Recover the amino acids of this structure.
């Protein structure tokens, strides 16, 4: 493989960068700032539902979707209105975009970020881009602990497709294109 293809495959690794156990959109620390048209809180269920133009930002990472459900543990003093504890998982639905840099993004119809297992599952016409390089499939699985990622396709679909383009200055003149 040329160095350009290896760098392009790093797009999958970008989603798999190690993250702490707390809810993080990126390995960077700091608060997660969520804006939306509407917020509904189901305190007894430990669930908050953001709908309409949802935009979650942490550092340079950005998660956008039509709807995001945040599931959280109840605070220790679990009386009515006690507040939220740690976030357990986030589900994003409809036109999901996860942007980690100016030219790195993943798009799908749905995504689940499970904090306990530290994994991301994105489904529905998944498109990963890094610069001009593109990988498509129907499902993306990322293990944030190991950094391993996989793109697959459902039965009866076209399959996984990868298009790598651009120049490769690192391989200039070495003749190794394996």
């Amino acid at each position: 493989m040329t160095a350009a293809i290896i760098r392009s495959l790093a797009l999958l690794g970008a989603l798999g960068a190690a993250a702490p156990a707390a809810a993080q959109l990126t390995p960077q620390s700091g608060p997660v700032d969520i804006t939306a048209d509407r917020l509904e809180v189901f305190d007894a269920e430990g669930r908050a539902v953001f709908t309409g133009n949802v935009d979650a930002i942490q550092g340079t990472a950005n998660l956008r979707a039509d709807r995001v459900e945040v599931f959280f543990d109840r605070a220790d003093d679990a009386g009515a209105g006690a507040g939220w504890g740690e976030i357990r998982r986030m589900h994003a639905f409809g036109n999901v975009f996860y942007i980690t840099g100016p030219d790195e993004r993943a798009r799908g119809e749905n995504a689940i970020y499970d904090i306990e297992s530290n994994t991301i599952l994105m489904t529905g016409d998944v498109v990963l881009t890094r610069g001009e390089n593109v990988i498509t499939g129907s499902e993306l699985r990322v293990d944030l602990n190991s950094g391993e990622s996989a793109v697959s396709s459902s039965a009866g679909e076209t399959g996984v497709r990868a298009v790598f383009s651009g120049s490769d200055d690192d391989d200039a003149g070495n003749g190794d294109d394996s």
